[in-house]
Every structure is written in C-alpha cells, then in structure tokens.
Write a structure and sequence with these properties.
Layout (H helix, E strand, L loop, with lengths): L4 E10 L2 E11 L4 E5 L6 H8 L7 E6 L2 E2 L4 H5 L2 E4 L11 H11 L4 H14 L15 H13 L5 E5 L7 H16 L3 E6 L2 H7 L2 E6 L2 E6 L1 H6 L4 E6 L6 H12 L4 E7 L5 E6 L5 H10 L7 E5 L3 H9 L3 H22 L1
C-alpha cells in the first residue's frame, strides 16, 4: 500500500530566502501525523507545496502514490485543505457557503443537501448554519472551514494551525472530531506550534526547525530518547552568563546529569536532563552552594515535546517564536527606514 503522503528532500525558497531547506517524512494511511515547530520553521510552506499551492524548487511529493508535481489535479481531488487563515464570504449563510463549496467540488446535486446537513450536525453548526457567516465567532468560522474541507470526503485532510485563536471549548470540538475522523479511516496531517495539541492528537510527528526535520517518531518515543527527567534552574532572577556557565561546568560533572543547556533567551536559566527516578534537586542545590551560587528556582518534571526541541536546538519553541518575531520586526523597521 502506498503511503498516504510522501515528502522527500523538499526544498523551497522565496527569492534568496530559503523557507524549506530539506524536509522528508512519510504519513501512513489512517494516522494523524503532526508537524510541530515555531512560526517560520517551514510548516506552512511544506503544506502549500503538498497541496499544490506552491511549486517546490526540488524534491518529491506524493499523495497515495500520485505525484503532486506532475499530477496536481489528481492530488487535489484526494486532499482536503483547511488553511491557517479562514477566508469565507460574509454575505452567505453557513449552509449556503457549504452548498457553494460542494458545487465547486463537483459533488452530485442529489447528494449536496444530505452531505451539507451531515457536516452541519457533526460539527455542531445547527444553531448557526442559517445565519450569515459575518456574524460568526472565530471558533464557529473554523468549524465551518473544517466542514468545507471535508465535503468531498478526502482521503487526506490537511490542516494548517487549525486551532489558533480558538477558545478551549472550540478547540476540544475540533480535537474530538479529528480523532473521530482517524477512527473512520481518514488520514490527517496537522501543523501546529501548540505542544499539547500534537502530543494529544498525533500518532507520529516530525519536529521542524529552520526548514529541516530535526526529529521524527511517536510523541512517547521522542520523549523517551531524552533518557530522563527535565530540571529547570535559575541561579538568580537575572543571572549573569558567567555564573550560569560556571554552574553548567559543575553540574555536568554530576553522575546523574545527562545534559545541561544555558538558555540565554530566558535570562541564562539552565535546563538539565537528569536520570529518571533520581532525587536530583537537593544534590543540585548542594553542588551550587559549595561554589557559593544561590538557587532562585528549581523544578523537576517528566520530559515534554518542548524538551525534545530544546535538546535538539538549544532553545524552547517559545524562545524560537520570540526570536523569529523579533527578526521580522527588525526587518520591517529597516524597510521603513529605507523608504
């Protein structure tokens, strides 16, 4: 059986700026596969190439064994795509918009009404379907967009950041429906920078950073590879780098410590990986006191997907998002100064 989605050595640049440097992964039929990474990592560009909305510079893309590059029309018939930004006609009612979309998908006229009603019921849109979409909240608009992407019963549903900006209730509705789709045999590919979303939904995932895949596997296997618990440590509320580096040198010598990273983005805090089951905190605090360093805060927890990202890149996903946002702001400022 062919893979539901195969992406191999994908590359895509916009001018001189590489958005995707080298991305490869395989999505198996009937699974939820997650692409996790900060904004600007290359997730959306990868999805746009898969959905034939952007042409890659090089690489291989297949959906059910069909090339998205040489046979884009055939691939589009097999995909349902829900973009990050919801674009709907605010004049139409939800029901009217779904019927219009169904006609664009060339669904048989005799089945459009039933299919529209089915999705309205399943996604809890009964109270809103005959209201104009311009009156919808963000959560209801997202549900409507999801319904539109499912009208033609695609083999693969592709969602780009499907719950950004949604309240908890709307997010849970989307999560429950995606899990029901998987149980019914639909393959789901989802991009997100929400750690808990990918952890809760994905059977397998790829973590993307700066246009490349840095880790791939099941959520549990990726966390298990870290080989221990996470310890977060602040020597002071605002720690000088020299003290953090001194602490790093001492802590790395402790037999139960696997790895130590100084997080310069978060005030030179320290992130440690320690052996599971160890009563590490008192020993860490004692080792620091012996070299006259205080302990402002200290906590131990089980590994998360953010720890996987941290171990691979030296920063958390939130750190990467902050850095990317700052970079974009600087570029905008330079452009304005040049005008």
């Amino acid at each position: 059986m062919a893979a539901a989605v195969l992406i191999e050595n994908l590359r895509k640049s916009y001018g001189d700026v590489p958005a995707v440097k080298d991305i490869s992964f395989i999505v198996q039929p009937g699974e939820i596969f997650g692409l996790l990474g900060p904004n600007g990592a290359g997730k959306t560009t990868t999805i746009r190439c898969l959905c034939t909305l952007a042409k890659p510079d090089s690489g291989k893309i297949e959906v059910g064994g069909i090339s998205a590059i040489s046979s884009p029309k055939a691939v589009r018939q097999r995909l349902g795509y829900v973009a990050q930004e919801v674009a709907i006609d605010k004049v139409l009612t939800g029901r009217e918009l779904l019927k219009l979309q169904a006609a664009l998908y060339h669904l048989p006229k005799s089945s459009i009404g039933d299919r529209t009603n089915q999705l309205i019921d399943v996604l809890g849109l009964q109270d809103y379907a005959d209201q104009k979409t311009g009156t919808y909240s963000g959560g209801i608009r997202k549900r409507l967009d999801l319904a539109a992407g499912l009208l033609h019963q695609p083999e693969v549903l592709v969602l780009d950041e499907p719950t950004v900006g949604l309240d908890i209730e709307s997010r849970m509705v989307v999560w429950e429906y995606l899990q029901a789709l998987r149980e019914a045999g639909t393959t789901v590919l989802i991009t997100s920078h929400y750690l808990e979303e990918i952890d809760a939904l994905a059977d397998r995932l790829a973590i993307i950073d700066k246009g490349v895949v840095i880790a791939e596997g099941t959520p549990s296997s990726l966390k298990d590879k870290l080989g221990g618990d996470r310890v977060t440590l602040r020597i002071r509320e605002f720690t000088p780098y020299e003290e953090a580096d001194k602490a790093k040198y001492i802590l790395e010598s402790l037999p139960f410590v696997e790895n130590v990273i100084v997080n310069t983005v978060q005030g030179n805090s320290l992130n440690l990986i320690v052996q599971s089951g160890q009563s590490s905190l008192s020993k860490i605090e004692q080792s620091l006191s012996e070299i006259d360093l205080p302990t402002f805060s200290l906590a131990q927890s089980r590994p998360s997907l953010d720890d996987v990202y941290l171990a691979a890149t030296g920063q958390t996903i939130m750190d990467a998002q902050i850095a990317a946002s700052s970079s974009r702001d600087l570029k905008k400022e330079k452009k304005q100064q040049m005008k």
